[in-house]
Amino acid sequence: MRAMFFRSALLLLVAITFGLTGCVSTPPYTYHYIPGWTATLNNGYADAPPAAPPIVRDAVAAGNEIIGKPYRYGGGHQNYYDTGYDCSGAVSYVLHSIGRMHTPTPSDELRRYGESGPGRWITVYASQGHSFIVIAGLRFDTGYGSGEHGPNWLTRSRPANGFVMRHPGGL
């Protein structure tokens, strides 16, 4: 009788643990301006913050290089330098430009990129069907913006349910 009670209690504990881990979600992206530490927008282009290390300034510059390119499914995957970009193609372009990616990577595989959790300067948000990157607090995304599609810098908050946060080591 006592063994059956403990086994039932253990099964209940395991069920609760699995249930609670399913409730954990990635917090939404929200832009918070911190003078000197957060990138800012200037006519659709990002300005890196003065405190940013050179590699972060290079990442911002890389994002700026493809602003205005149209959204194109599969864009940026055959070649980093393309006429249009999809979400993961744009993220891959930025990471490649700073030497942190060697092969264009689809969103689902970005879920395993780099190190787990948010980075200090750069965070990749990836789900099975979408990805975006936050550099010095500013979101670089191809969607969930002001109706424009293609790579853009955005300050608009964005839900992140179903996304994981990853980051390049040391950033």
How are the elements arranged and paired?
Blueprint lengths: L1 H22 L16 E3 L2 E3 L6 H12 L21 H11 L9 H4 L4 E2 L5 E5 L4 E5 L2 E4 L10 E3 L9 E4 L4
Antiparallel strand pairs: 1-2, 3-8, 4-5, 4-8, 5-6, 6-7
Helix pairs in contact: 2-3
Shape: globular
- From the helix content, strand content and strand pairing, which structural class follows? alpha+beta
Strand order of the largest sheet: 3-8-4-5-6-7
Rg from C-alpha positions? Answer: 19 Å
Number of helices: 4
Distance between the termini: 55 Å
CATH domain class name: Alpha Beta
Question: What is the third-level CATH name, the topology?
Answer: endopeptidase fold (from Nostoc punctiforme)
- Strand content of the residues, in percent? 15-25%
β-strand number:
8
* Sequence of secondary-structure elements: HEEHHHEEEEEE
CATH superfamily: endopeptidase domain like (from Nostoc punctiforme)
Unreliable spans: 2-24
How many structural units, i.e. domains? 1
- Major sheet: size, sense and barrel closure? 6 strands, antiparallel
- Report the average pLDDT across residues: 86
The share of residues in helices is 25-40%
The name of the CATH architecture is Alpha-Beta Complex
Model description:
This protein is an alpha+beta fold and 171 residues long. It has one domain: endopeptidase fold (from Nostoc punctiforme). It is 29% helix and 17% strand. It has 4 helices and 8 strands; from the N terminus they run H-E-E-H-H-H-E-E-E-E-E-E. The chain has helices spanning 2-23, 54-65, 87-97, 107-110, and strands at residues 40-42, 45-47, 115-116, 122-126, 131-135, 138-141, 152-154, 164-167. The chain has a 6-stranded antiparallel sheet with strand order 3-8-4-5-6-7. Strands 1-2 form a two-stranded antiparallel sheet. Helix 2 packs across helix 3 (87-97). The protein is globular and about 40 Å long. It starts with a helix and ends with a strand. The model is unreliable at 2-24 (pLDDT under 50).
